[in-house]
Amino acid sequence: MMRVTLPADLRNRILREAADAHPRECCGLLEGLRDADGFRITALHAARNLAAAADRFEIDPRDHFAAHKCARANGAAVIGCYHSHPVGACEPSATDRAGAEEENFLWLIAGESGLNAFAYADGGFARLEWA
Ligand SMILES: [Zn+2]
Known about the structure:
With 131 residues, the protein is α/β, with parallel strands linked by helices. The chain contains 3 helices and 8 strands; from the N terminus they run E-H-E-E-H-E-H-E-E-E-E. The longest helix has 14 residues, at 8-21. It is globular and about 35 Å long. The N and C termini lie close together (11 Å). It binds zinc ion (ZN). Zinc ion (ZN) binds at residues 83, 85, 93, 96, 109.
């Protein structure tokens, strides 16, 4: 079972961003390291949400580029993304499934019931454990 390490201050920041963005979705990218055991998140890069609809997120490509550049400079990588679900479960939605494409990419979804982690691989999402 792959595990996800997320420092408490970063976890709190995601939950705060989700609350601040409500009733829209917050979104951002996760910087860190990936190995055989899972994902280690070391930094967050909050992004502008370009989606017109409230129940969607679309990361601004400029923020995406900046996050990659910053992660590389830190000797890390962009290993995943996060966003919130203002209503409904912290589970990948049909839209998330349709939009996911990068293999072995970490997805954090924040919502009323907390924060869940998933890895996207082989065309599907698998729920991950917190380390
Ligand atoms: Zn979603």
